[in-house]
Amino acid sequence: MKLYYKINTYGCQMNVHESEKIAGQLIERGYLPTDDDNLADVIVFNTCCIRDNAERRAFGNVGALKKLKKAKKSLIIAIGGCMTQQPGVADMLRQKFPFIDIIFGTYNLSDFGKMLDDRLKNGKKFTSLIDSYSLNENVPIYRTSGTNAWVNIIYGCNNFCTYCIVPHVRGRETSRDKQVILDEIKRCLDEGYKEITLLGQNVNSYGNDRGETNAFASLLADISKIDGKFRLRFMTSHPKDLSQDVVDIMASTPNICNNIHLPVQSGSTSVLKDMNRKYTREHYLSLIDMIRSKIPNCGITTDIMVGFPTETEEDFLQTMSLVEQVRFLSAFTFVYSPRNLTPAAKMPQLDECVKKDRITRLIDLQNEITLQESTRCVGGVYEVLCEDKVGDNIYCGRTDEGKLVSFSSDYDLLGQFVNIRIDSAKHSALFGKVEV
Hints:
The chain is α/β, with parallel strands linked by helices.
């Protein structure tokens, strides 16, 4: 009899990759993937707690399974990830959703398969949470991200931004061994993946916990020496740690994409100080100047928060002016929401109407800039890695700088590098034809 699993993933790319590790453990035990709750024998929620809406969505979707669990008593429901790692959340989940079979956290995700085995063997519901992280390099991975392979290089975070719960639920920084990373990348390339994305809460901190200097730049240099045509990306970079050595290697190495995600969060030095970001507006802008002096066509993206407790209208206008000055390729914009355990949650909060007004103005500005930057590409020819088929003979992929391109082809181009002439642009999307 075939057995099926379904994984519901919330949050960042790190969570997406960790769901691939959960899937790997299920595949190893003979389960097959499905999108149908009714068909699934195991349903896993890999949660996020970085923002309030992700938590609320997870709670709502878990609660919706109550009737299914009652009708299908053999169904195993498991919940893990950042949300469950918070103090007291596991107890709350057991009380609110007593039909959950397994609760686990971020530190022991690699033990999920054993937890499932124990649940099926002894029939007892249980919670397994630990308070420290140890590297496990033997977790099977079932990759689900098309031509791209995610590769962790560092776990955890030491920054303690006053709004962020990540250090509390993912622990201190722990770097993987360089040779282990290189071996994983080589395996991915041998398996046919054309793009590698290095992951870490702060990739620039790679090696610091091992007492190494310029370790991230050294890692990039070693990866770039691997034979074969492939692309290398990385996220996320913290502005306080981004070094010129890293940018120099990007500029001199063809297979490292000219694309960098550099979260600014705010354009106000005062707010950045209150956030404990450890850089100023001026320092951030100097990084942008340095990057563009060495990589003029670099696609720079960012994260921007509005409505931080101490943000005034003047502070917000400084963010708007920074966005106008930098002209990001795109920006992930969001409204601050208080997170348990963080200092900012204890500060007097701004009115929701103020937050809504500011996020609307910011999104309008960034959309205008994104469209202008996209329009500049019309008429140009760009090399695109074909990542997905989105319709009849319609494919999409990204340029080296990270721009999304859609194009038609009578041939299957998945996983191939193709030159596309851009005919038109709409917001952040480009449209073109294969250049023969």
